[in-house]
Amino acid sequence: xxxxxLRPQAAPAAGAAARRGARRxxxxxxxxxxxxxxxxxxxxxxxxxxxxxxxxxxxxVSIGTGALAVMAGPCSIESRQQIRETARRVKAAGADMLRGxxxxxxxxxxxxxxxxxxxxxxxxxxxxESGLPVVTEVLSPEDVxxxxxxxxxxxxxxxxxxxxxxxxxxxTATKPVxxxxxxxxxxxxxxxxxxxxxxxxxxxxxxxxxxxxxxxTATRNTLxxxxxxxxxxxxxxxxxxxxxxxxxxxxxxxPASRAAAAVGADGLLIEVHPCPGRALSDGExxxxxxxxxxxxxxxxxxxxxxxx
Length: 308
Ligand code: PEP
Ligand code: MN
Hints:
This protein is an alpha/beta fold. The protein is built from 10 helices and 10 strands. The strands form 2 sheets. The chain has an 8-stranded parallel beta barrel, surrounded by 6 helices. Helix 2 (80-92) runs parallel beside helix 3 (117-130) and helix 5 (164-170) crosses helix 6 (187-199). The longest helix is centred in the last third of the chain and has 19 residues, at 289-307. Phosphoenolpyruvate (PEP) binds next to loops.
């Protein structure tokens, strides 16, 4: 583009009479102001622009249909046997998807960081064996192709909600995305993060509330269930809840899951470990398979009541 194109056009010379005439005309009929108004800045995510609810498909599972989609599995994939056993047990209890971390975003660099590609292979194998589609986290743009080879749903962790390079890369991925809310993100910032995925071409986005940081330290995070009800009204995208990170305490996972189902969440993401006491990450907030099965038996009536 030439620099000339950037300069404003010179106004045609006009006499005093012409200028007076123009001023009178302007006073009589002000120039039309054309406003393209979007009440919400997250224009593609908003229900205003898209009133009907979006259904996201991960493998053979549909999220956002009105049924509760339950994703369960360990925080981290620790061994082939651990993920296969978890898959078998959560499937038997009625889970719809298998979760498990291969690339872990840990607060301390000295903590277990995940087993990477090997863990992805074990996860995919466990998913095939049990018939469960799998969800796992992708930490960086360079890993998207590799993780997408194995995963049915690509998780963006809370710490990465505003990693715009990652969001832009995932916008062009062929797999759906699970976008967790950042620990300090407002609802508007969360929906604008989703907007990066939608505006970049990936319309298959699930939101996940996983607790936010508040003054309260008695729970690991403060699970914002009123926020879930609000976001369900603001957006057409499915919204699920992670009661494990949302509370940080095993004893609170079942009540928080039931509350999430009752408030209208489209699904749950729950940490389950065959032996939580020996978990390499998040054991204190993980259910064992029996506790998970017991919880599953109580959820359906609550989810139905939320839709009545
Ligand atoms: C996880 O799901 O194990 C995880 C790290 O979650 P978050 O990004 O919500 O902390
Ligand atoms: Mn975890």
